[in-house]
Design brief:
The protein folds into two domains: 141 residues, no CATH class; 211 residues, Rossmann fold, CATH 3.40.50.150. Helix content is 51%, strand content 14%. It contains 15 helices and seven strands. Helix 10 links the parallel strand 4 and strand 5. The longest helix is centred in the first third of the chain and has 24 residues. The termini are far apart.
């Protein structure tokens, strides 16, 4: 409440000093909020035939309890690591049930960051980031590829088109799976991109049935990376590549620094993470799972536009939403929609959590204590043989 009051006071001071901008900001925020409502009611991103959260989520009536429960599992809400690791499956499901439409409205269909050049737009950089990963996997036309933790399938659809491959997206969130498959059908790629519900901690698919696999900012949700990577190892053919981008804290992070710890707690709360780890944890987990690690490098320092730039709070049309004033106005609008029944109970609380995640990612990026783009490339030992190719052909025919 103190933080909200402080933000409200700051909003009043700013509005008094900038009445014209305040009026424009209010109009833009209300318009954006109405767009969110419209997207929720008729299907996000223009897919009017795609069921929205209100149609798909039969547990809307309990969303307030789920939202509050999610917050309470995190350090910010009084929770602890053991609780989060024990209940990761439900925690992450609650997070994405309640936040997916916010992601799609504000970020698009690919829920990840990217290195970026000054002349690039954010969507262009995101696609290039995905294509780069596809190249790292050394895919061939017709290959069958696994997307580990696929979201609503944005990267899967882009990589399928780019590399002329079939992609199976694995996701334990039923809402995202249905949403992604509806989009694939609308875009005419359902024959090459299929999202399936499943747990990457226990992959129920035939062994050695994939020619490659990737994970884009997804296995940071895993309560045990070694177990997760071992499951990926199991379903890959010998000689296949597993590549991805991981969320980790950097060497600059100091767990004994209260500011650093508070920022990392906020990142975990705002992004559905059980915990955060150093880069060494990724390498150790890949090795323990049986992979040969070919490379593991943080790409953040190579980005000419900081990866956290979308979260820079600026009183501009693009940056306004991440300022204290923008966050407050949006939260008030969402709270009003929740009050009159246009949004599920708990939506405002989830918006607050997402705002916390955005602001702490920005702070962590400025301090250099965190990266969302630790790129790893690992290979399952063995050679890509004719038997593997025949197996692939059989799996496609089946």
């Amino acid at each position: 409440m103190l933080a909200l009051a402080s933000a409200f006071n700051e909003a009043l001071v700013w509005a008094a000093a900038n009445p014209a901008l305040a009026t424009v900001a209010a109009v833009v925020t209300v318009a954006a909020s109405l767009q969110v409502v419209a997207a929720l009611l008729r299907g996000s991103n223009g897919y009017s035939h795609t069921q929205s959260l209100f149609d798909l989520n039969s547990r809307v009536s309990s969303s307030k309890e789920r939202s509050s429960g999610y917050t309470k599992t995190h350090t910010v809400g009084g929770g602890n690591l053991d609780e989060r690791l024990k209940d990761t499956f439900n925690m992450v499901n609650d997070y994405y049930d309640l936040s997916t439409d916010f992601y799609m409205f504000g970020w698009g269909q690919s829920f990840h960051f990217a290195t970026r050049y000054p002349e690039e737009t954010l969507p262009e950089s995101i696609r290039r980031h995905e294509y780069s990963l596809a190249n790292r996997m050394q895919l061939e036309a017709g290959d069958r590829v696994l997307d580990v933790g696929c979201g609503v399938g944005g990267p899967a659809r882009n990589i399928s088109r780019f590399a002329d491959v079939s992609v199976v997206g694995l996701n334990n969130n039923d809402y995202q799976v249905k949403r992604g498959n509806a989009i694939a059908a609308a875009e005419g790629v359902a024959d090459k991109v299929q999202l399936v519900k499943g747990n990457f901690m226990d992959i129920d698919m035939p062994e050695e049935s994939f020619d490659g696999a990737y994970a884009i900012e997804a296995t940071c949700h895993a309560p045990d990376r070694t177990k997760c990577f071992s499951e990926v190892f199991k379903v890959l053919k010998p000689g296949a590549t597993f590549a991805g981008y991981e969320w980790v804290f950097t060497d600059k992070y100091d767990a004994s620094n209260p500011e650093h710890k508070k920022i990392m707690d906020g990142i975990e709360l705002g992004n559905g993470l059980p915990t955060t780890t150093p880069a060494s944890d990724v390498v150790d987990a890949l090795t323990a799972a049986g992979f040969e690690v070919k490379s593991c490098v943080d790409l953040a320092p190579t980005s000419q536009v900081p990866w956290y730039q979308p979260f820079v709070p600026e009183y501009t049309v693009q940056g306004f939403k991440t300022t204290p004033v923008g966050i407050l106005l949006t939260n008030l609008a969402v709270s009003a929609m929740e009050l009159v029944g246009l949004a599920p109970k708990g939506t405002a609380e989830m918006h607050t959590n997402l705002s916390t995640g955005a602001s702490t990612l920005y702070e962590a990026g400025q301090l250099g204590i965190f990266t969302p783009m630790l790129q790893f490339v690992a290979v399952k030992p063995g050679a890509k043989g004719q038997a593997g190719r025949k197996s692939r052909s059989r799996s496609r025919a089946e």
